[in-house]
Amino acid sequence: MEEAIANRNFDDLRELFKAEKKTVKDDEFVIVKIDGLLKKRGYRVMEVPSEQKEEFARLHFNFVMNCTKLGYCSKSTPILTLQDILEVSSIEECKHLFGLVEENMNEFKQPGFIETYQNIILRLCNDLLRRLSRTAETSFCGRIMFFLSRFLPLTEKSGVNFMGHFNTLNITTFEENEPTAESLLAATSSHHAATPSGAAAGAEEDMETGEIEEEAAKEIIVTPEMYRQFWSLQKFMSNPNLLYEKEKFVVFKKDLTAVLSLMTANKLEKFAAEDESEVAESRKKINNDVFFTKYLTSPKLLALQLNDSSFRRNFLIQTIIIFQYLNAESRFKPPAKKMVLNEEQSKFVHDYEDKCYRLLSDTMPRGTAFVAGLKRIMQRETEWNQWKNSNCPDLSEKADKGAMQMYKKRQRVPFNPNNLDLGTPELTKLWTYEPDVLKACKSDKRKFIPTLADFIRDPLDEMDPEQQVEEQYKSINEVSFQWRAARLLMHKAPGYVSKTEPKADPTTNMRDFLERTMYNTGKTIDEFKSGIEERERRDAEKRAASGEKKEAEARKKVEESLKRKLDTNTKSTTIAVSSPNPYTDPPLTDENLRQLATDLSKFSKKLAKLVGIDEESLQKTSSSEEDRCYRILKEWAERNGKSGRSLLNLLIADLDVIEVATATMKKIHETST
């Protein structure tokens, strides 16, 4: 069995599984045995070289997953095997192997697996996060957290900061010793003062990669006290609950007021419209290449950092988040500690929150758009806070299960042309020339387009054959007339744009198309309707007369052809018997009628119609076609005599019937002679 697992051979494993089940009383022992062998094989897989480890791990995981689906091992074995593989792998190897967890997320969320895998995957991800450095492996930590947010259901409380804890271990270290900070700032100031103006030519060579050159950047004077005030605010950012203590809030208020006053007094220069897009693109490239999880706190850098729009935005967003938390209602703020702001503190928070938004709007590039997006994000955070206060209810239960309501349109404000100002006196005078501008536009004096009836009257007369208008003199041949006709018909004719069959050929002849459209449009106008109907009636009569004439000519030709055939047959019969007498018409006997009925059995309906006998009455008394044909011929012979020539003259109206009858009569005459 171990060899079958090593070779990933399902056929051998199936046979061994069946054989083992026969030797034990409980099937669970076989499954436990296979679980152990699969995990053991997982450890063997990790002994291969690093470059082949991911490939072998993927093959083994897929094999174990298929074994689970076939019932050869436990449901938890695939994820436990993957957990063991990750535990014995290095961090670099885990970055590649974690892709197996991400790729099979949908498999893990299937019914029957989610209950077993949820806690194991949560433990696997937490073990990985404990091994990783949040600063050195930020990207991998983000992958794991993003996977958990997609895998776990929204109501899973392990993925929610349910108690509202803060990361108080996030400590920002800076030069708290004032003499040291003062000496560093003095050294920085003396360095700038000692820099000669002629050194500007070599400034570009000293710029670091990705640094943006700012023309005439205003230098911000940072004092040691300002340095201490700015970085000491970070302890309140990492633990906002300190601000509910009155003494700490006074310190926070003093330091924050000084920092925001410095930013207000030293606003960043606004970029020119043509340069703003270029600077934004440059900053985007820099942000994609370099990302600092924590800013440096050297006194030498603070003046430069305050000149950076990204640095300012990050600090102001921090402040806005703290303000929102202080004003938010949370069930996890213990009432005993009186975590509520007084009226003066609430006013300070409200005023300075607006001030932070104004500073963000003034921070380029695209400050206004940035503030609009930030406000929407903060609104969403407020809604999530309310959701947590409600003990994280299942949002799917609140979804609308009924039919969607129709959107109610907003009522429009009626247009009043009397109260109109177009900006200039002349335009307003032109627009208010008449009390009702719309009525003035519809005045008959402004109608220069002919009516549809007037326009198509002449072309319809030219189409009438009785008018005898020659083709070359018809107005439809003119290109200018076709253009005007197309414009007018498209606007007023209902049949100009009509649905065509999918396989119909496109219209390529504009002349024929316009003639057909004008003719069809004339049918809908009362002035031309009667004339067109009269014309169509005359055309139909002509076609009918022409068709009857052609039919009569064709019938005459058939009769002449049959007569020639009968004459030929008569002559040949006369020569054969050496009789000088002309062809005689002997009467048809019952045997002759029976023979004709046999040959004409497939034409019983046509025969009944030609003879003038109701076939339905015969169907009730006769079962076969041949019997019905015989009764039809018998009844005709009794009424009209038993002349074969008379019968042929009657059947000549149908070509199929006469051909068969003629052949049969020929046989009858040959037999009688």
How does the SSE layout of this entry go?
Elements: H1 2-7, H2 10-23, H3 27-45, H4 50-70, H5 77-87, H6 91-103, H7 105-108, H8 114-131, H9 138-151, H10 178-194, H11 203-206, H12 224-232, H13 234-238, H14 246-265, H15 273-289, H16 302-306, H17 309-327, H18 343-362, H19 367-389, H20 425-431, H21 437-441, H22 452-463, H23 479-492, H24 510-522, H25 526-577, H26 590-599, H27 604-611, H28 615-621, H29 625-640, H30 644-651, H31 655-672
InterPro entries: DEATH-like_dom_sf, THO_THOC1
Biased composition (Basic and acidic residues): 533-568
Protein name: Death domain-containing protein
Written account of the structure:
It is a single chain. With 673 residues, the chain is mainly alpha-helical. It folds into 4 domains: 1-151; 224-275 and 291-392, no CATH class; 452-497 and 508-562, no CATH class; 590-671, Death Domain, Fas (Orthogonal Bundle), CATH 1.10.533. Helix 23 (479-492) crosses helix 24 and helix 25 packs parallel to helix 31 (655-672). The longest helix has 52 residues, at 526-577. The protein has 31 helices and no strands. InterPro entries: DEATH-like_dom_sf, THO_THOC1. Pfam families: efThoc1. This is Death domain-containing protein. Residues 533-568 have a biased composition (Basic and acidic residues). Residues 533-586 are annotated as: Disordered.
